[in-house]
Amino acid sequence: MESLGPLMRKFDFPQSVCEALKIIHIQCEKMSLNPSSALSQELSQITDFVDEFVFGNHQSKAKKLNYLEQLQVIQALIDHFDSDEGEFSLLCSVFMVVFLAKGKDVEYKMDTLSKLISLNLSQGHNTMLNCVALWWSQQPPNSKHCNQLARSLVHEYMILVPDIATLLKCTPQQSPLLAGILLIHFGDLYKVSSENTNPVFKAPPLPLVKLSTTWLMEQKDLCGAQGKSECQNVVSMLGKSPIPALIVWSVLAPLVTQEDNDLDYSRLHLSLLLHITQANVDASFPVGFL
Q1: What are the angstrom distances between the C-alpha of 94 and each of 22, 28, 87, 90, 141?
Q2: Whole-number Å distance between alpha carbons of 103 and 106
Q3: Which of 85, 110, 120, 157 is deepest in the core (most CB within 10 A)?
Q4: 186 with 204: CB under 8 angstroms?
């Protein structure tokens, strides 16, 4: 892909980003048709190409894009994934390659991804949301980048936007898998931890409690264990349920908060009970949980 450098430098930014995404799309299609090729070498070349022409501006001397340029990259990504070009599986491959946790500045990639997800959650671009969900499901367990991503989404977006539960009400219908993945990470962010052998629990922000309740109520089989419904479910995909951590919220949070939010936690508790069935009781209450 080095031979494409002179051609790409003829385009002004951000048109260069749009053209780069088209080329990456073609390269992913070629790799899908020829899986026996030297994949690691090709991915390394594409990663360098992504660093230079998707997350870089060859017309600027700055090492990193400024905030305006970053927003232009995000818009180019939305336009590419919101178009009718290519089948979903190929678009997923493009997304995986663009946000591969390798390259010059992985932290900047994750920062861009956080802003991209925040924007798409509210706008509801189904293809993009499902690409994000599949990307997330392919990351290693307890991935540092995924944990940072979840924390960023919560603290820089979800608890700052008024009535976030209403705004993101439709997320479980648009991407059930992403909703389930986020619920798991919400629970991991606010869980019982040990400090000096003493258990410590910090209650989650109330907007996050209301959002979790809304999602669970909107998609009654979101945490099912069998995956037999049309809803992609997080338990069968990731082998983990968000229910255990969220049950801790509904029990402990009212005991440690000063505000009178008992009704909100009662609603959360009810939504969790509706998800616990004979089929998924083992996932809901794993060994050692109680």
Answers
A1: 9, 6, 11, 6, 22
A2: 6
A3: 120
A4: yes
